[in-house]
Amino acid sequence: MIVRPERAFDFDAIDAVVGAAFDNEHDPEVRLVRQIRANDGYVPEFSLVADDEGDVVGHIMLSYVTLGDRKILQLSPLAVRPERQKQKIGDALSRDAIMRADEALEPLILVLGHPNYYPRFGFVPARSLGIDPPDDAIPDGPWMARKLANYDPALTGRVDFGPAFKL
Ligand SMILES: CC(C)(COP(=O)(O)OP(=O)(O)OC[C@H]1O[C@@H](n2cnc3c(N)ncnc32)[C@H](O)[C@@H]1OP(=O)(O)O)[C@@H](O)C(=O)NCCC(=O)NCCS
Questions:
Q1: pTM for the model
Q2: 90 C-alpha to ligand 1 centroid (Å)
């Protein structure tokens, strides 16, 4: 299995993986992937597939949201085909995405996700870094940030997810 940037010919397979992982082909996450691609925050080189001999078995996206006047990467969504879960495919995608963002000298990655999953990759509560979610109703647990080598502690304030995340 390799992790590589998505290409247009993967898009249908990605829809199928995301739809199956989140248990509904028409669910918000499938639309979210399409909306992210259609918006300014889309970064093709940070939208990755797990490719197992030509089969797309997992997908991850890092795209830009805004924090004040800065663009910051947000991890969403992450999906692994149900019958291939718990085989470290999500792990490989997450670590590869973090490595690529680090190599690109990005300061930080945000995620709104499972509080039991992402800490293994170095994610910590984002509010502890002074970064607030778009909505105060979002609890501390799932709102996380991964500092990268180029982390800048001046990056504080409230995040705006932008139009791609309005479903
Ligand atoms: C979450 C997900 C991406 C993990 O991918 P994966 O390839 O199965 O994960 P890995 O094999 O790398 O890691 C497995 C670990 O993830 C944990 N995990 C899986 N789903 C989880 C969940 N919903 N909440 C918390 N932990 C979860 C497993 O318990 C396992 O933990 P362990 O290593 O302590 O045993 C995958 O289960 C998935 O696609 N789920 C449905 C979509 C989803 O919820 N995406 C994440 C949105 S934030």
A1: 0.96
A2: 7
Cβ-based neighbour number of residue 11 at 10 Å: 14
- Helices (DSSP H) in the chain: which residue ranges? 11-21, 28-37, 89-103
pLDDT of residue 23: 83
The neighbouring-strand residues paired with 70 are: 67
CB of 66 closer than 6 A to ligand 1?
A: no
Q: Is 152 exposed, middle or buried (0-12, 13-18, 19+ CB in 10 A)?
A: exposed
Domains of the chain (ranges; CATH) run: 2-165 (3.40.630.30)
Whether 92 lines ligand 1, by a CB cut-off of 6 Å, is no
Q: Answer yes or no: is the C-beta of 162 below 6 A from any ligand 1 atom.
A: no
What stretches in the chain show pLDDT beneath 50? Answer: none
Return the structure tokens found at 19. 């739809």
Q: How far is the CA of 94 from the centre of ligand 1 (A)?
A: 11
